[in-house]
């Protein structure tokens, strides 16, 4: 399932544009994960992206939560989609995984932080977007 024709856009809302992080090789790990989820979970994820994109917040911590280190998580149970906020009213979804334990695995959070740092460096250098659409 494709969420948008433009590979990096998950949802373009009134308050935020929610995007899939695309690495230097052109891979979008969270998008690839989402495309392989069962349909019922894709619907749950899209509801969360729409609420965050259009309203700008999700108050229910069982659906969206600050995980520390500027990393947040969309939580369409039992899946997790780690993300961060970026300039231009963007939310960048970095990676996703199936939740098997109470805490986020350290390696998943580390991947999200590394993706955030790479994204910020690429944007600063003018390499991430051909043209900034903020």
What does this structure look like?
The chain is α+β, with helices and mostly antiparallel strands. It contains three helices and six strands, in the order ββααββββα. It has a six-stranded mixed sheet. A hairpin with a 2-residue loop joins β3 (64-68) and β4. It is globular and about 35 Å long. The chain starts with 8 loop residues before the first strand and ends in a 10-residue tail after the last helix. Mean pLDDT is 90; it is low at 1-5.
Percent of sequence in beta strands:
25-35%
CATH level-four homologous superfamily name: RelE-like
Distance between the termini: 26 Å
The CATH topology comes to YaeB-like fold
Count of separate DSSP helical elements: 3
Using the coordinates above, name the CATH class.
Alpha Beta
| Anisotropy-based shape | globular
Q: Indicate the structural class.
A: alpha+beta
What order do the helices and strands follow?
A: EEHHEEEEH
Biggest sheet, in brief?
6 strands, mixed
CATH architecture identity: 2-Layer Sandwich
Number of structurally distinct domains: 1
Strand segment count: 6
Mean pLDDT: 90
Radius of gyration: 14 Å
Query: What ranges have pLDDT less than 50 throughout 5 or more consecutive residues?
Result: 1-5
Strand order of the largest sheet: 1-2-6-5-4-3
């Amino acid at each position: 399932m494709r969420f948008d024709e433009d590979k990096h856009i998950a949802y373009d809302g009134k308050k935020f544009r929610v995007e899939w992080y695309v690495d230097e090789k052109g891979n979008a790990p969270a998008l690839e994960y989402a495309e392989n989820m069962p349909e019922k979970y894709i619907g749950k994820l899209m509801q969360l992206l729409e609420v965050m994109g259009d309203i700008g917040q999700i108050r229910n911590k069982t659906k969206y939560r600050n995980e520390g280190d500027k990393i947040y998580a969309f939580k369409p149970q039992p899946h997790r989609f780690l993300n961060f906020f970026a300039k231009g009213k963007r939310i960048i979804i970095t990676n996703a995984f199936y939740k098997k334990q109470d805490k986020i695995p350290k390696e998943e959070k580390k991947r999200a932080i590394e993706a955030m740092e790479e994204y910020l460096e690429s944007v600063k250098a003018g390499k991430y977007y051909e043209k900034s659409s903020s």
